[in-house]
Write a structure and sequence with these properties.
CATH class of the largest domain: Alpha Beta
Structural class: alpha/beta
Largest sheet: 8 strands, mixed
CATH architecture of the largest domain: Alpha-Beta Barrel
Helix content: 25-40%
Number of domains: 2
CATH superfamily of the largest domain: Metal-dependent hydrolases
CATH topology of the largest domain: TIM Barrel
Radius of gyration: 21 Å
Order of helices and strands: EEEEEEHEHEHHEHEHEHEHEHHEHHEEE
């Protein structure tokens, strides 16, 4: 594949030579052959000229759910990766949310094989415990050798602190990454939404912030004792940010993420009982949103994720109490973040994080493999559900103004527009 990108504005704050400069970029057989102010198109080369074309290294999402195997009606791996590519992502971390769950090396091999030749790089997480039941550790070392980049019982809390301690101590020997979902289920009970004035007014059972924060306090104490690498996915409260900031100051090896929807929606949007806003952790208060945004800007929160979770209509168009948790979000990530943080900060947020998982960060320089996202940062629009590529249409972002449209990606010697 030979491609010439014409007049592309490069967004790459780590390289001042090209940052925010317009350049032509010649790609030969998937490798960056030349970057220059004007490059003539060689023969047998596809020339790409696009309105207000900007490029960066390929984007990365640390929390994505599909359905295959088991829930193919929600999202297959093939269509999920297509959705990721059209959304600008060249690398995604796949949560273990299928059925059966991936808790063995053969399961990880299946996921890796299913993603071959699909363009986007899929990096699977394996379950921390057998069948994600929380009783005994799964074959963590074998899964990592087969390509797992971390271990997580998706959206399930580790109720046994001794199990977390053993997992951290064991994985420390091979630098494995342990996830712990921040939810004390005994405090959360049968809660559905944030506990507060809105839940009381609507008559919905609440999940108090304490349920998240109590679990984080416990997990950080275990980490301090056991050592190892801990990741706390999708935090949602102001105090969670404070607790993790304090842990980092102490030198603990901990990272955390936040879902985009927890940065823009408060629990006030639940007034109409729209189940697309039913997510886990739940939407919190405006005060929490302010603290989360500050945590992102200060670097306490390491990653922003779409937490893309396709749910078929039968499990969303039901009474609020009976609806499944989750919203899709891959297609909305750039337009929302660019609106919130501006272009340069957004690209930093969308490209950071690979090193935590042992994934090589692509470089935008001659002689390197081309791994680009192509986009127009200035186009504004409101998405329509019928335009979504995702099989499931459970989106919380419909009619939310976006700034910035993605053209596609160039990755693994493929053009995916």
């Amino acid at each position: 594949m030979n491609v010439l990108l014409k007049s592309a504005t490069i967004v790459n704050s780590s390289d001042k030579k090209y940052h925010l400069k317009k350049r032509d970029i010649l790609i030969k057989n998937g490798v960056i052959a030349s970057i220059g102010t004007k490059i003539d198109s060689p023969s047998n080369t596809k020339e790409i000229k696009l309105k207000n074309l900007h490029i960066s290294i390929g984007w990365f999402d640390s929390s994505v759910n599909f359905g295959e195997p088991g829930y193919e009606e929600r999202e297959t791996i093939a269509n999920g990766l297509l959705t990721a590519s059209k959304s600008g992502f060249t690398d995604i971390i796949l949560n273990p949310s299928s059925t059966p769950v991936p808790d063995s090396s053969s399961d990880i091999v299946f996921l890796k094989n299913a993603a071959q030749n699909k363009g986007v790089n899929l990096h699977p997480l394996g379950c921390l415990t057998n069948s994600a039941k929380g009783d005994s550790l799964a074959e963590l070392f074998d899964m990592q050798n087969s390509g797992a980049v971390g271990f997580y019982d998706n959206k399930k809390a580790i109720t046994n602190p001794n199990l977390l301690k053993i997992a951290l101590q064991y994985t420390d020997s091979f630098e494995g990454l342990v996830y712990s979902f921040p939810l004390d289920t005994r405090i959360a009970g049968k809660g559905q939404v944030n506990e507060g004035a809105v839940s009381t007014r609507l008559g919905l059972k609440g999940i108090p912030a304490l349920a998240e924060e109590l679990q984080i306090v416990r997990d950080l104490l275990v980490l301090e004792y056991a050592g190892g690498k801990l990741h706390i996915p999708t935090i949602s409260t102001a105090n969670s940010v404070k607790l993790i900031a304090e842990a980092k100051k102490k030198g603990l090896n901990v990272t955390c993420s936040v879902a985009i929807h927890n940065l823009i929606f408060s629990d006030d949007v639940l007034q109409d009982f729209n189940t697309n806003y039913k997510v886990l952790p739940p939407l919190r208060t405006s005060k929490d949103i302010r603290a989360l945004i500050k945590g992102v800007k200060d670097g306490v929160i390491d990653f922003i994720t779409s937490d893309h979770t396709p749910i078929n209509i039968e499990n969303k168009k039901v009474e609020f109490d009976n609806a499944d948790y989750g919203t899709i979000g891959l297609e909305n990530a750039f337009g929302i973040l660019n609106q919130m943080f501006g272009l340069e900060k957004t690209i930093i947020l969308l490209t950071k994080g690979r090193d935590r998982y042992g994934i090589t960060t692509p470089l935008l320089k001659e002689g390197e493999k081309a791994c680009f996202t192509l986009f127009n940062p200035d186009e504004t629009f409101k998405p329509k559900i019928e335009d979504s590529i995702s099989t499931s249409k459970n989106s919380a972002y419909i009619e939310k103004e976006h700034k910035g449209k993605v053209y596609g990606v160039i990755v693994n010697n493929n053009i995916l527009f």
